[in-house]
Amino acid sequence: MLAGVLEAKQIKTDAAALAKWGKDWTNGYTVAPSAIVFPESNQQVIEIVRYAIDRGLPLVPSGGRTGLSGGAVASSGELVVSFDRMNHILDFSPQDRRVTCQAGVLTNTLQQFALDQQLYYPVDFASSGSSQIGGNVATNAGGIRVIRYGLTRDWVVGLRAVTGRATMLNCNAGLIKNATGYDFRHLLVGSEGTLGLITEVDLRLTTPPPAQKVMIVGIPEVKNLLNVLQVFSRATKVSAFEFFSDLALEKVCAHRKLTPPLRHSVAYYALIEFDDSDTEVAFDAFEQALSGGWAVDAVMSQSEAQAQSLWALREGISESIAQYTPYKNDVSVCIHQVPEFLEEVDGFVQANYPDFEVCWYGHIGDGNLHLNILRPQGMDVAEFMAKGHAMSPKIFAMVAARQGSISAEHGVGLLKQEFLGYSRSDEEIDLMRGLKALFDPHQILNPGKLLKATTA
Length: 456
Ligand code: MLT
Ligand code: ZN
Fold this sequence. Notes:
Layout: E1 11-12, H1 15-21, E2 35-37, H2 42-55, E3 59-62, E4 79-82, E5 89-93, E6 98-102, H3 107-116, H4 133-139, H5 146-149, E7 156-163, E8 168-171, H6 184-188, E9 196-204, E10 212-219, H7 224-235, E11 238-245, H8 246-256, E12 268-275, H9 279-291, E13 297-300, H10 304-315, H11 317-321, E14 327-332, H12 338-352, E15 357-363, E16 368-374, H13 381-400, H14 426-439
Parallel strand pairs: 2-4, 3-4
Antiparallel strand pairs: 1-2, 5-6, 6-9, 7-8, 7-9, 10-12, 10-13, 11-12, 11-15, 14-16, 15-16
């Protein structure tokens, strides 16, 4: 296979490798790739695509495999293209404050590189130690500091990708201004490997923020989360405004053996991060929340180590509930609609599935809620997943009624393609299919992801 293009060490076909590289963090799908290849250069990626075109062999691009929508799952003999060996930082321009990475560079490697240059790459999430830049770009990854710094898209100033025609697309080359028509870079961002295999990315860096403080505020009623967001946003430079429910806190504390942040449990908690210089005004904001009856208690970090342990209460949630094989959902609505949306979903679950527990957390400052329903003890995984699947149209109808998104940051992948119509119109989906046909005429790039596979 690909003799003369790849060395033996760049191809794996053993069962352990197929099982490892054939999936991401999503559960419940058959994992059955035919082989895994590890290109080391753009030219090798072009050769792999040519090889796939000649044989009608579907390709599944694979980054850090931390996705939660099945975007990197290979279920039926696909060739997985892993970017693990394309993990070099290729260039850095201090004048442009721009770094060029191969797709396989880990998020935290890039973050550290930026800090070493007294600069900052702000897109951050719990999986930064495993996720790769190419995957982040392909899914337009969000995370915990979107409220201040935006999404991955906002930092991409150029990229190279191999299309399904085995041609190299060089988009924007790091320019800030470029008014020459359609910007393919932004088409590739969030395309989930369906239009091109992203091989290199140019990213903007920024000035590091000043020292940060973290406060966790106890908020008994969901509607008051937004009042607290407002007073803190007015008073401080907010870098993160995250939230979690008491059930989420209970699970993370049990799993990681952590202590709850407040003396008494409260229905909801907001984790707020802001500039250290805003500490005084943050106290005032909390006082205001207290006297408004919106908040009942709070704790503030006194050191960097304490800030990190408060963050662990939020960032450890996903991992701590994995044992319940939750029915996971990642949705967004406009910020002002968050409380009534959450209450409507809660009411629906309680009325129809009284034995299901909803574990809420997410990036409330961006209107992005992670709705995780925990599998009741003793319920078979398949039965639970089937119930979750049956529940999806009901929940997505509530999202659609608010013109929200059925996937705020995790992508569509395999998990949500049949529900895409809840967030995108027929006209949009039709145009997406047209673009797919243009970029990938042989239908070999991650087929069946994002858009349902069509028979040509
Ligand atoms: C998070 O915000 O913790 C991640 O998106 C992971 C998850 O949703 O479970
Ligand atoms: Zn998230």
